[in-house]
Write a structure and sequence with these properties.
Elements lengths: L4 E7 L6 H9 L4 E6 L6 H11 L3 E5 L6 H10 L5 E6 L3 E2 L3 H9 L4 E6 L2 E3 L23 H8 L9 E3 H7 L10 H9 L4 E5 L4 E4 L5 H4 L5 H21 L2 H11 L11 H11 L4
Parallel strand pairs: 1-2, 1-4, 2-3, 6-9, 7-10
Antiparallel strand pairs: 4-8, 5-10, 6-8
Helix pairs in contact: 1-2, 5-10, 7-9, 10-11
């Protein structure tokens, strides 16, 4: 019988957390695909233990480290499930996550769904959401694509669910984006349909020094510059993909509703958006 729902996990050096990450999805989905991206610790042993405890878990192990993007893309190819639910190997999906997100994703106008997280520390204690300001929902406007474009990435990646057909249409994560591959995907998904971010959490997001968000706190000036250049490239790429109608909608929802920009050519609209964006 073909799986309807699948958890997708790329794991690397998370021996203390990966079993819980897998278990939290295995009890909610038809299958979990987990790939160990050449961990140096006991992550593979913990994945093997999860496979022994949950019959619906399938695992692979990369011989060399491929990185998050390539590993997640690889994991998706291992599943034919209709709905995909992502998790970090150090995070935990809350009960009811899959059911609630499937309900959202059966609405054809919705391209991607996520939520605010419950933020926890390395030992699982709940932290204030203020400890993870990157996930604060912007208050301006109602268009989540415009919010993402102008305010930056505020979607918690391990809270995201998406239809497999949408993932395939987008082509998954693009190569060459080591820092912001998820941000790029969310933006492109917004061209296909609505982005829904629920205030009710569906994931426990672990904030610690060894995860990607935590590493942003200690980024060198050189790394931060590279990250900013990556973001600029992503935003320009999105503008290149947007139709005149989408460009007008972006302006209407964020810059100037029903504005003087009507009647501009596509290139003029792009120039107007760039002039209003602080990071392009």
């Amino acid at each position: 019988m073909q799986a309807k729902t699948a958890g997708i996990i790329a794991a690397h050096n998370h021996e203390s957390f990966v079993f819980s990450a897998i278990a939290s999805l295995a009890v909610q989905t038809d299958e979990v695909i987990v790939i160990d991206d050449a961990s140096k610790d006991n992550t593979w042993a913990e994945i093997t233990r999860a496979c022994s405890n949950f019959a619906n878990v399938r695992s692979l192990r990369n011989k060399s480290q491929l990185g998050v993007s390539a590993t997640v893309n690889q994991a998706v190819t291992q599943s034919s499930a209709e709905f995909l639910f992502f998790s970090g190997s150090d995070d935990e999906s809350l009960p009811g996550r899959v059911e609630s997100q499937v309900d959202r994703l059966t609405q054809k106008e919705v391209a991607l769904v996520g939520s605010l997280p419950v933020v926890i520390n390395a030992i699982g204690l709940i932290m204030s959401l203020s400890e993870a300001p990157e996930f604060q929902l912007p208050t301006k406007g109602s268009d989540n694509l415009a919010k993402l474009f102008f305010e930056g990435n505020y979607i918690c990646a391990p809270s995201v669910g998406i239809r497999r057909s949408t993932w395939l249409e987008l082509g998954g994560y693009r190569d060459g984006l080591p820092n912001l591959q998820d941000y790029d995907l969310w933006l492109r998904a917004g061209l296909l349909g609505q982005i829904v971010v629920e205030e009710q959490p569906v994931v426990r997001y672990r904030k610690h020094s060894r995860n990607l968000s935590g590493s942003n706190l200690i980024m060198s000036q050189k790394d931060m510059k590279a990250r900013n250049e990556e973001e600029k490239s992503i935003l320009n790429h999105l503008l290149d993909l947007m139709s005149t109608e989408k460009l007008n909608a972006l302006i209407d929802s964020w810059i100037s509703p029903g504005s003087e920009f009507k009647g501009l050519t596509r290139l003029e609209l792009i120039d107007a958006i760039k002039a209003s964006h602080p990071r392009i």
